[in-house]
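User: Hi! I'm a student and our assignment asks us to look at how structure tokens line up with a sequence. Could you show me two examples?

Assistant: Happy to help. In each example below, the sequence comes first and the structure tokens follow. Example one:
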Amino acid sequence: MYGVIDFSRIDTLPGGCGPFAPPAGWQGDYREYLQARFDDDIGVRQQITVVSRILVCPAGRTPTRFLGPHAVAAREFARSVWPSIQRN
């Protein structure tokens, strides 16, 4: 369903590909959009969790680059996921 996933490049451009990219023409609060996708879609949740783990524990992996208009917010959201999972 999701195909090959390149976790070194995260696209946040509306209409782009991947869990961090809203649909074309989307407007609104990006953080709320990501949280809703994370809560409602297990595939999105898994992908964001993997990105979060890579950001928090890089261990020699290729650095993840966030691209597009929501790059900063996407990185902040992803970084927040792994620590919250570890607390539970």
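Example two works the same way, sequence first and then tokens:
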Amino acid sequence: MKNLDHSAVLRIHPTAVPNKDFYVRIVAEGGLPELVWLSPELPEPSSTELETAIAAEQAVIKTAAYLGQRAAEYPALTDYIDAQVKKASNDPVVQQAGREQEAAYLNACLSIKQKYPKGDKS
């Protein structure tokens, strides 16, 4: 079963203990992982349960990658705060600089949202 690992099995049986209740092994070099079930207390997961758990684990990994990519490219929040402070200034030149800085910050954020839209987690 491609991409089978401990986390998929633990999604089905959260109380199972790796290397006590089960282990995942590779039968041959380049082969697919195989579940070896050892627990007499817990029922062995079916192929369907394992496939569903593997798909759920892969979705979590994709979501984490997507969120990480987005977060890594956002501008620093301190840039936005600095813009707000400048906008609150009594100096019209500083206020204008703050408005421009805020606009640049928002445009940068919007471009990241467009680059990594929420519906596209591939």
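Here is something you could point out in your write-up. The beta strands are 22-26, 33-37.
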